[in-house]
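Morning run. Coffee first, then this:
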Amino acid sequence: MKSSEPATNQRILASAREVFLEKGFRSATVREIAVRAKANIASIHYHFQDKETLYLTVIDDFLAGLFDKYPANNGKERSLPPEQRLAAFVRSFMLRIYMGAKTSEDKTMIRLAAREFSSPSTPLPLLADRRISPMVVTLHEIIDALLGLETPKRIKALCVSAVWGQCMHHAHFATPVTAGVLPDNPSQDEVEALADDISCFSLSGIQGILNKYGISPSHGVPWTAQAMGAGTETGHLEKGSHKPESSLPGHRQ
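And here it is:
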């Protein structure tokens, strides 16, 4: 009996993913999932307790693979300059969205997960605590390091929300709103170039906010593309160079 449990477990998860993708949480039924999995309803309750837990497991299993491959800090040490840590954070975020979703189903899963984080179909605090909270904490730490401890909390929160919002925009609307930003099947270099553009845009925006309120960044000097590490890791934004249009994300020769 025990040897059949993993097979049943995996069949239920695979069928649940199909049904949730097709119908969403509210319209999906445990009965239909059971029929597709060739299992009985009692098996679903045994393995996953209820529909909410099954839904959580489907999303979390998908996200676990993405976070294992593209961790929030992208392998960067906390001792590095915060500009580089911010660039690594954004790169990982973009790689999870664009490189971690190769099939149409995966892309739908990305949008499904993003929707749950912003407007949950059902209370899923465990999912948020497990996947989102650590990312938010990491981003707050990076912004704290950029701005210094004396910067007002409101300014820090504004900067965090601006960076987060740009990244989540791509998770929600990888198409059609962002059409033209990247080709349909972007390479990793193209995704990393986009991530570096977002980081540059974010740092410039943060600098603008600091200027508006007369606040000096913790380093005492404006940030540059070189300071954030662009060009040293991905080959983008080399000092003193300007990309021709054909080399920008979304343009291929």
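DSSP finds nine helices and no strands in the chain. Good start to the day.
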